[in-house]
Design brief:
Blueprint lengths: L2 E12 L10 E16 L14 E8 L4 E8 L5 E3 L8 H18 L5 H9 L2 E7 L7 H6 L6 H5 L30 H16 L17 H19 L6 H8 L2 E4 L7 H4 L7 H10 L5 E4 L6 E7 L7 H14 L1 H31 L1 H11 L14 H31 L6 H11 L4 E5 L9 E6 L3 H10 L3 E2 L10 E3 L3 H11 L5
Parallel strand pairs: 3-6
Antiparallel strand pairs: 1-2, 1-13, 2-6, 2-7, 3-4, 4-5, 7-8, 9-11, 9-12, 10-11
Helix pairs in contact: 1-5, 1-6, 1-9, 5-6, 5-7, 6-7, 10-11, 10-13, 11-12, 11-13, 12-13
Length: 508
């Protein structure tokens, strides 16, 4: 029986750079772009002598990259050995498999389920990974087809389209990643989906069903997925990052404060011969002190993401430059960080105020948002015809003022550190976006750079923004906020994609 799990991509709206250090918080929105992992057995029947086997088979298929990688897994210490070309290996999936199976061993060893686990492993693990189109840039394919850079053109591509590789720059300097991405955190979503699917398949956790809107699930199960996915992701990356991308892939939209990096120190030194099971047992016992608080955009607001098509930025090197600047200019950098931290927390407060107003005075909130959606911000105050409406307008304008401050401090930090956090081309684009009717805010997500821009629009003002972006060569993605985290799917997403494509065919 196949298990299908999915995990969402993310947009870090506030907290870029600051989120690397406790106790700074960031607001991270999970999206409807999801990564899927499908796990099923390779062999339906076990041979009588299979109990004596020391190795089992693992097969990883990535249809979008037309890749299939075959491994042998040691049943004794859960290590994988690649028996096809190493060029095809995916370190994120490899670590996800090794850590998930090790966690299953560590947790189920005393529970009487050890035989069932052994049987499942001896049948082999057939793993398929699929990412929503929004994780990747399809600009080249759309331009090659002579189509306009519109969301409609993007929507016309088949689901889970083949991914193109960037060509290497001459003299070996491959400055862009090999696959053109849109910065939604594909590696974190992929790692989380694989870990979740495996832990569910092996009987260690029970995931919430995606069709269950209340999504009440044992938090211990999600916490286990989170710990295993963070461990695998950090080891595959070769460093302990802030972990916000994995946290949002597991739990959905949230306000996040990172865990203390020391909790993964045993995983980092695992190279000295400790087995995966010893490492994961240590990590599971560690003090995971991250903080996550439920958060999502207030009602009648839409998250938009645009891909400017100016080539990706390297987040690690930008982070490195900012850290160097912090060391060389401690006084100045502390001041900028303090101002940024304050502005980030003000933005969060204002958005929470709007959510509360929507809850308590829905009709008033709805009418203000609806009228402001057709107006530029300088006209919004004219809609405040009574104190209740005024409260909504003031909160909306408060959000706008705060994002302007955040952008100012992010630009200043970039100038000081000598990295393009909000490059001039992005500044012009974001200013033009903020100047449109019904736009609440606009900015560069995460570490900034040339990868993407985001906007939050009110009511029905979305298409004006996507049209303006298109006229400036910016590809509007189909991404929207979806506050759900990791979940169990009822079927292979390709089957769903085919049936929805058939239902959209119009027969005269």
């Amino acid at each position: 029986m196949a298990v299908v799990a999915s995990a969402p991509g993310k947009v870090l709206m506030t907290g870029g750079y600051l989120i690397l250090e406790r106790p700074n918080a960031g607001i991270v929105l999970s999206t409807n772009a999801r990564f899927y992992a499908i796990v099923k057995p390779i062999h339906e029947d076990l041979k009588p002598d299979s109990w004596a086997w020391a190795w089992t088979d693992v097969k990883l298929t990535s249809p979008q990259l037309s890749r299939e990688t075959v491994y042998k897994m040691s049943l004794k210490n859960t290590t994988l050995q690649c028996i096809s070309s190493r060029d095809l290996a995916n370190p994120f999936v490899e670590q996800a498999v090794q850590y998930s199976v090790a966690a299953a061993h560590a947790i189920l060893v005393d529970s009487g389920k050890k035989d069932a686990l052994c049987k499942l492993l001896l049948q082999g693990l057939d793993i398929t990974i699929l990412g929503s189109n929004d994780f990747y840039s399809y600009r080249n394919q759309i331009e090659a087809r002579g189509l306009p850079l519109t969301p409609e053109a993007l929507a016309s591509l088949p689901a889970f389209s083949s991914i193109t590789f960037n060509s290497e720059v001459p003299n070996g300097g491959n400055c862009k990643p090999e696959v053109a991405k849109t910065g939604l955190g594909s590696s974190a979503a992929m790692t989380t989906a694989v870990v979740a699917a495996l832990l569910h398949y092996l009987g260690v956790v029970h995931l919430p069903l995606s069709s269950n809107t209340s999504l009440q699930v044992e938090s211990e199960d999600l916490d286990l997925v989170h710990i295993v996915a963070q461990s695998a992701h950090c080891i595959a990356q070769g460093k302990v990052g802030s972990g916000f991308d994995v946290s949002s892939a597991v739990y959905g939209s949230q306000r996040y404060v990172r865990f203390s990096p020391g909790v993964l120190s045993s995983a980092q030194v695992a190279a000295n011969g400790q087995s995966f099971q010893e490492v994961i047992t240590d990590v599971l016992k560690g003090k995971w002190d991250h903080e996550k608080t439920k958060f999502s955009l207030p009602p009648l607001m839409t998250l938009l993401l645009g891909e400017p098509g100016t080539g990706g930025s390297s987040t690690p090197s930008m982070v490195g430059s900012v850290k160097k600047w912090q060391v060389s200019e401690p006084q100045k950098s502390r001041e900028t960080w303090r101002s940024l931290g304050e502005a980030n927390s003000t933005l969060e407060t204002q958005l929470n105020v709007l959510s509360k107003l929507a809850e308590e005075q829905w009709e008033t909130y709805k009418s203000v948002v609806s009228s402001c959606s057709g107006l530029k911000s300088e006209k919004w105050m004219e809609q405040a015809s009574d104190p209740h409406k005024e409260a909504v307008v003031k909160a909306l304008l408060g959000v706008r003022d705060t994002i302007v401050k955040i952008r100012f401090h992010m630009r200043k930090m970039g100038e000081e550190a000598g990295v393009p956090i909000e490059p001039e081309s992005q500044t012009q684009l974001l200013d033009a976006t903020m100047n449109m009717e019904g736009v609440l805010l606009a900015g560069v997500p995460g570490a900034g750079g040339f990868d993407a821009i985001f906007a939050v629009t009110l009511g029905d003002s979305t298409s004006n923004v996507t049209n303006m972006w298109g006229s400036r060569g910016v590809m509007s993605l189909l991404v929207r906020e979806d506050p759900r985290g990791v979940s169990l799917e009822s079927e292979d997403p390709r089957a769903k994609a085919i049936s929805s494509a058939i239902s959209s065919v119009h027969i005269e």
